[in-house]
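Internal tracking record. Fields below are filled automatically when a chain is submitted to the structure queue. Please do not edit lines marked as system-generated. If the sequence contains nonstandard residues, flag them in the REMARKS field before resubmitting.
Queue: standard
Priority: normal
Entity type: single polypeptide chain
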Amino acid sequence: MGIPALIAMLVMIVLIGVGIGIGLFACVIAAGLAMLGVVSSSVALGFYTKRPATAVRALLLQCGVLAGIPAGAITAWVGRAFLEKVDESWMIAVYGGIGGAVAGAVLALMLDFIFRRTHAWVEQRVKGKAVVG
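SYSTEM-GENERATED OUTPUT FOLLOWS
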């Protein structure tokens, strides 16, 4: 077995390991969302309203808020030098969490808006080609 074959085998092993790591990370995130009830509440809302778009919107909003809280808290924690008026360090995390939740909700609403507009545009293009063809 030559050197190029060994290098190719090592690269393949590394890529397989990275793929397994990403898959495990995705499984942990999915399990956390299921444990928090994000997935089940979104599905239940979709069944209740009989509209899948409502379920997707609810999932995006809940994921945005849940991801925004720790992101905002960590960002505020890192940027606490700019918040000189706040003496208690735990209040910095609270303010950051609130700001992150709002930012996550806004991001989720923007993504939902983009997805709905894109879906309408693609649907219109497909219908237009079906009528012409």
